[in-house]
């Protein structure tokens, strides 16, 4: 297996990650789903541009820590989205990373077992499988893009993206956003709030 990168944490080699292509091949989605995701991105863009009068509603858990619970939530959301489709467009919040300025759990992509083992490869698979299941059932997805290295593993399955307050002014994250195929929102800049 060709490695994309070595994972080093506190000077200790944790292992290597498979390439983005390998993960995409392993956890693939149908062409139908790819086309559907593209359509959802267009719908969201049209709402944001005022071409579609519906309200854009992004709802869901603060972060995903249990893939099965997330899929169950998506099943319930699917019923609601169809019920209110004429008035609002509902997108499921599928956040797999948590921004941290101090210690704390960084999200399922970084630490899927919630125990400090940092099995990033397992976390990538969890996140991609979760998104594959949710988009296959036709629920649109939203996430905050934090780690530019992990973004390519899941970006093709995201309908709306966010750049968070801690990274809004980061050149790396602005460049990341410009390369994404989904509409991207930028949260309020922290310094504007503090001054």
From TrEMBL:
Coiled coil: none annotated. One of its GO terms (cellular component) is cytoplasm. InterPro entries: Aldolase_TIM, DAHP1/KDSA, DAHP_synth_1. Pathway: Metabolic intermediate biosynthesis; chorismate biosynthesis; chorismate from D-erythrose 4-phosphate and phosphoenolpyruvate: step 1/7. It catalyses: D-erythrose 4-phosphate + phosphoenolpyruvate + H2O = 7-phospho-2-dehydro-3-deoxy-D-arabino-heptonate + phosphate. It holds the Pfam family DAHP_synth_1. It comes from the Bacteria. GO terms for molecular function: 3-deoxy-7-phosphoheptulonate synthase activity. Residues 41-188 form the DAHP synthetase I/KDSA domain. GO terms for biological process: amino acid biosynthetic process; aromatic amino acid family biosynthetic process; chorismate biosynthetic process. Its EC number is 2.5.1.54. Keywords: Amino-acid biosynthesis, Aromatic amino acid biosynthesis, Plasmid, Transferase. Stereospecific condensation of phosphoenolpyruvate (PEP) and D-erythrose-4-phosphate (E4P) giving rise to 3-deoxy-D-arabino-heptulosonate-7-phosphate (DAHP). Belongs to the class-I DAHP synthase family. This is 3-deoxy-7-phosphoheptulonate synthase. It comes from Escherichia coli. The lineage of its organism: Bacteria, Pseudomonadati, Pseudomonadota, Gammaproteobacteria, Enterobacterales.
